[in-house]
Amino acid sequence: MPAKTELKIWFDKSAEKWTEALPLGNAETGAMIYGKTDREIIALNNDRLWSGLPDEQQNTTAKNAIPAARKLIDEGKYAEAYSFVNNKMLGHYTQSYMALGDLYLDFSHKPENVSEYARQLDLSKAEYSQTYKYNNINYKREAILSYPDKVMAIRLTADKSNSISFTVSFKSQLRHNVKQISFDTLELTGIAPIFNDPNYDSPDLALIYDESENPKGIKFAARLKIIANGKKISSCFDGSELKIENADSAVLLLATGTSFVAFDKMPDRDFIHEIANIIEKAAEKSYDKLFLRHIKDYENLFGRVKFDLENENENTKEKYNENYINKPTDIRQKEFENEKDMELIALYFQYGRYLLISSSRGDSFAANLQGIWCDEIKPPWSCNLTTNINTQMNYWLAENTNLSECHRPLFHLLNYLAKHGEKTAQIHFGCRGFTAAHNVDVWAHSAPAKGNAVWAYWPLGGAWLSLHIFDHYLFTKDYNFLKRYYHVIHDAALFCHDWLYLDKEYNKYVTSPATSPENMFVYKDSNGDKKSACVSKGSTCDMAIIRQLFLDTIKAAEILGTDTDFIKQIQEKSENLFPYQISPETGRLMEWYIDFEDSEPGHRHLSHLLGLYPGTHVTKENSPEIFEAARKSLEIRLANGSGHTGWSCSWVINLFARLKNGNRAYDYVKQLLTKSTYPNLFDAHPPFQIDGNFGGTAGIAEMLLQSHEEFIEILPALPDKWKNGNIKGLKARGNITVDISWENNKFTKAVLYTEEDIDSIKIKYNGEDYIIDIIPFEKNIFKI
Predict the structure, then answer these.
(1) Is the pLDDT of residue 478 over 90?
(2) Cα 31 from chain centroid?
(3) Are 336 and 330 in contact (CB under 8 A)?
(4) Nearest to 94 by CA among 386, 377, 366
């Protein structure tokens, strides 16, 4: 049992499934630790281990099909247009993210003879630890994945000398080889398959990887060095395993790497030499020194936000902790139905921040559908970056939970995507600017995928992703950043400018063909027969993205003092965009340009509500009718079963937060924890998708602080169940850090800090406006 703390995920038994293992990550290497006492499994990943090679993958005839598709849509032949888009306007599927391999540590400590077992992930330290007793000896394992030293360090100790004995081995599902590099070092090398490689579906994939063949594809390696307290380390089984006997303690150092260079370059880098240097430099430091460097770096990010929620039914925090904190996390999760353990929400909130830090930092690749952790070589949806909600949701928490640096890998990707997407815009759509479709991979795939148009045809993925750039500027006020990335915003807006066309029926600008991500509608054809389709024009989602993008582009250009002529052009189109439509029958915000019948009334996607969240232009103050219609649309969707996947549930939390309905937002926080979360607190789509974790954390923050209008709103959606609490370190737009405390469901104090040159801030609480004076570089206290 761990010491009392609010930020430890712990279990009293080892993991049997991958979704019970505990994750570590330094954004480049990921590890899932099972905590087994007999044969430990540590599943490994590297952020740039993907199948395939650089490839344009463009449909060169698609743009010629656009006029015919638009004609079918204008004639109301939606099913025919759907079929036409499927046959003429799609392309090739993305490549796949892949598991690197497994590290095995064989101790032969039989579980039936083990007692006092506990394993835990300490979120405050990003450290895994495990303790147990075997043959009256107390064993301990500790592990970190260091960002500054780029290495995984594992320490094995016991309270009796000469008690550490184990065998080390590697295995991979990919073509691989394992060999002993030196007396204390073992190395796994291998190669990922290329697109359409016949071995991809063949048992031959497991054949030994021979470097002399110089095959194509991304090569990978994991190198392990053992420091075993001066004891002898021997090899066995042709040098494919290392054996340690009777050591007092041992430290294992592991690093991974790949030959990936860039999205448009062949994978050819001396990564073996790189990881060898990483290991040798790390070996010059003790485990304690590696840990101190790790925790100093990690705490700089994670420690910015503190969150505490008290249980409304307990009189003292001490009693509360005693009742709930010291139960294993899986038990706490199962018992959350009784709504006593509010600190589990705080733990879940911080877990989302931990996962983002661990999967998206510095020069790493952007977080994919599973962040950085994946145990398959053919994972669900290729574990790619899905841009019709999932990749965006991965980064919803980056700004408001004070992790702006973790947003950086997405911006790096957008730089590459804008270059590749420029070709897609020209070849596939006949437009300027850049576009990206439904799926993106490490090769910056930007064209519509091969598949069904209901999801594969999605030309506004790049536009939606580009919204993150201006939002990052609003939170950080980083002028140089905005100047550096403005070209991405401009090119996304340029594509939308060219893609819009003036619809003669409405005399408004619309998109066509247009879809609403992964959803379909029902209509009657000219014969009165009901048919289903997904393709029409001017879908609400399309218009919301373009409306938001144009607003952002205009503001960004004004700040930078640039692009005057182009801004005039998009202002003209912005003023004449097809407007939001409210259903005369139900009062809801319509998803399509016509009030079609829903094919699936409880559909998981809520794309037509994008203007409310994550967009910022639908507010109660600025557009009360649309705001109310969005609320009705959400309630109707939920009444029919929406919010049933983890990420959809997280989106609902954020939407209700923007609707200022804390109790309804809390209902879906509860649902997320009890119905859409695995034992290790990974989000369950199912299967595992990390977007639900990130979206859930973002939603909890949005319930407590909002800043998307011309003011900072404190506790805009505080639920009744969160009676007493405080949160420190949330970020508001304007580069303002905010601490908030409340008691008996009423705001008590806020502390605001900024380094920006401002005199005052407008604050809203409970419908009342307050103007407070601000002194930069000082803690400014606000009370009512």
Answers:
(1) yes
(2) 17
(3) no
(4) 386
